[in-house]
Structure formats: C-alpha cells, structure tokens
Amino acid sequence: METTELLKRVRQIEIKTRGLSSNIFAGQYHSAFKGRGMAFSEVREYQYGDDVRDIDWNVTARFDKPFIKVFEEERELTVMLMVDVSNSLDFGTSKQMKKDMVAEIAATIAFSAIQNNDKIGVIFFSDKIEKFIPPKKGRKHILYIIRELLDFKPESKRTDLRCAIEYLTNVLKKRCTAFMLSDFIDDNDFKNALTVANRKHDVVAVQVYDKRMEELPDVGLMLVCDAETGHEEWIDTSSRALRNAHHQWWTERQKKLNDTFNICNVDSVSVRTDQDYVRALLNLFAKRN
User: What does pTM read for this prediction?
Assistant: First the structure.
C-alpha cells in the first residue's frame, strides 16, 4: 500500500473507531474489563462495621487506636490484541474483507483502552509469531498499531492458534486482557493452551467470518482455493446436497469451537463481515457485566 493511501486509511479508521470508543464503548468497556485488583490508597480510623482484617497494626500501635487500610480498584490494565494475519483472513464476499473488519475491531478496542489509561500491545501471528509490539500508552502508539494492522505483510500463510496462545502465556509476565481476533480456521487442537493462558490472563475470543463460510450460493460450477495451502478445486454449487453438506460442516465446526471456548471459560463473540460489529462488541461487553 502506498504511503499516501495508507495514511488516508489510517486517518479514516482513527476517526471512525475513536468516535465509536468515545461515544458508545466508554462506559461498557470500563465496567466489562476490570483492573488487576485493589491497590492501597490510605489509612483512616477504624469505624464500627469495618473488616478487622484491614487493620493496619503498625499505625494502630503508633497512635494507640485502631486504623484500617483503605483500598481502591487498581484500574490500569494491560490489553493485548492477538491478531491473526494468515491468508484465510484475506477474503470477503460482501461489505469488506475479514482482515479489514479485524483491523477496525482492533482499532476500536485500542482507542477504548487508551481512554481508560490502559496500555495496549499487539501480537501478529500466522503459524508463527510474526511480530510483537510491546504494550504502551498514547495516541502515537495507537496510530503505529493501526498502520501495522492495515499494512502488515506476514511471512507465512498458515494458522497455528496454539503457537500464538502459548507465546502470550510466556511473554506477558503480568496479568493482561487479551483479545484474540481470528476466523479460527485451524484444525489443530489449541484447547489445553487456551485453558492455561486463560488461568493466567483474561482471554476474549472475537471470531470474524464471511457468510460464504456459512452458506454456499447456488451459482453452478465454482473454482475454490484454500488461501493457506493454495489447493484449488472445482465444485458444483447447483447441487443442493453439496450446499447442505457444506452448511452442516460449518455448523459442526462452530459447535466444536464454541464448546472449546465454554470448556476453557473464555468469553467469545462471532461477527460476520456483512454484520454490525458494534452490536456484537456491545453484546460481548454486556455479557461480562
């Protein structure tokens, strides 16, 4: 992508997604994603009904009357965007490509994060870790992330979700909230890795898919190509049996994926490229409150 066109697209996405995060997501994001815990704020005199476990014995001994520690929610979060950049995301048959929707959702989450004074970082992955951007704050950092979301060129075409999840577990020492943005087209088992990662971190899955993964159109002979392997094959979409078999395959695949998220206790949402991702994210946030 040429520099002028890239900067124009960065600006367009910034205007759209910053507006969404300011006007729609601000409160929902804050309440859906809590801080790391409670941080010490001050001491005050003990009052009837206070928890005796909060008594500060050093201050109590000094003043010869009971004082307790007061805690406040520690709001600052570290947010990681885990972005699938494999070739299967380079596909779309309606409003936009899967990778373009992923970029918009990631940018919206990023702006929501910095408005809450959270750090934001990115892991780009295929079947390997393509790039790691350490978490930081600030608009300049967000714009750098958006540029990379729009213009990143992966070295590999394939997908390995387990590799990305294990990297998150190993590279982030402190607890973070990780948004995994992918079409989740990967036949490898990543259940164990996701279970371990979600014990250490708060992992949220955002699936982006195209309607043609769900339903094949009746348009006769069609040449289909696997974007990750390059395998090509002619199929006859006028066959109702073939279309039904494809839909059944998709339904079973989705059930298996949702079962995995449920077993791993991971919140998830699926959004189609011709649908409104704003509503999908709001539903996700509401589910966590």
Answer: 0.78
